[in-house]
Amino acid sequence: MKMEPKIAQRIVKNVLLSLFIYALPIVLMLLTFYFSGERPWKKQNNSNTEKQISDKK
Amino acid sequence: MIKFFESVFENLSTWGLPVFMLILGVIEFSLGLYKKHWSKNERILDIVCYTVPKIVVRPLVAYFGLKFLPLALPGFKAAFDWVPFWWGFFIIAIADDLTQYWYHRLHHEVPFLWRFHRTHHSAPYMGMAMASRQNIIYTIFFSQTYLTTALVYIGLGYPALFVKGIKSIITTLAHSSIPWDKPFYEKKWLHPMAWVLERTISTPATHHAHHADSNDDGVGHYKGNFGNMFFIWDIIFGTGLITRKYPSGYGVKSYQQEEWYAQFMWPIFKSKKEGSELAHNGPMVAEDPVQEKHFLHDEDLPSFNPAWKSVFTIPKSQA
After folding, report:
1. Does the beta-carbon distance from A18 to B102 stay under 8 Å?
2. Closest by Cβ to B91, choosing from A2, A17, A25
């Protein structure tokens, strides 16, 4: 039994739209960081470096 | 009592959800909502499907996944633990549920995959007993198990567990035979809330329609309503049908009450029932005994995109 071509076409179309939906929250988060000036990943890097220095001491 | 329920929800990802399901299941049984459909074969199948993934599949995937990921992606351990909790929650909720929507939809639309998902639909009843009922292959490849393991590894474990908890509650309640959403459709002042609710998350009305044994009554919609936590995917992709009613029958028309082991382990074990989809040389998809009606994808439906018809149409009974 084969899939109807109409259904296959609809799947392809909807998958493309899904890729956009997957990316949307990530893009929104990065845009928020861009406009607010927040850099949470830097904070993380700094605290990691501080931890490494204190561990060495 | 309140403290007990608080601790159930606090421990949802461990013992909380099973307790929540047990309480709901006991209520369903005492209300007689299984209507004598729960035969010995169904009972064994439901219990095996509930326990095996929890005791065997998920722990094994988590254990080997967390051993394998450091070798495959050595630089990514806790690499994203800087992502703020609520952003993590938002990103994971969408990624997880949309992936599951596709996993589920493809098992319905790709004929080759149907028999791996048939077990979930063969139950002629709704409720806690059948909510976890799945073929073992469907369970092994279930996207959420791998996604949660990977997210824990890259440092997004807390938001992932939070999403998992909320999703479990919504999907459990959508499978329940208790029509908790009915008051939203009956009381006129609750209609605006119902409108938002039924388009956002899966409800018993929309998810029961997906488990209907027929589409002929205009309520059943087993070729759509694929959403698990969010129903919005069905709205966006045009696979949804909202009627605010519950179908009269559940299951699949071709069901022959195949042996529990064949339903659980197909294609490793096959059914002895002649002509069954699960039998040796059985059809990939059994012939539909009833002429199907398509609601949202009929060419003759008017307007720019028929998919949006369900968004803007209020069922006649509610008008």
Report:
1. yes
2. A25
B94 reaches A (C-beta below 8 A): yes
| CA A23 to chain CA mean position, Å | 6
Residue B65's pLDDT is 83
B28-44 per-position pLDDT tens digit: 777 776 667 788 999 99
Say which range, B56-65, B88-97, B208-217, has the weakest mean pLDDT.
B56-65
- In the A/B pair of chains, how many CB contacts fall below 8 A? 47
Instruction: Enter the tokens of residue B312.
Output: 């803007």
HEC string of B100-157 equals: HHHHHHHHHHCHHHHHHHHHHHHCCCCCHHHHCCCCHHHHHCCHHHHHHHHHHHCCCH
State how far the Cα of B234 lies from the Cα of B256, in Å rounded to an integer: 30
Contact B95 A22 (CB under 8 A): yes
Q: List Cβ<8 Å contacts ≥24 apart for B267-276.
A: B267/B115, B267/B137, B268/B136
Q: Do A41 and B82 touch (CB under 8 A)?
A: yes
Q: What is the mean pLDDT of residues B259-266?
A: 96
- Whether residues B90 and A1 touch (CB distance < 8 A) is answered with no
Most confident stretch, A48-52, B75-79, B110-114: B110-114
Task: Give the Å distances, CA to CA, from B295 to B20, B223, B240, B299, B308.
Answer: 35, 10, 9, 10, 12
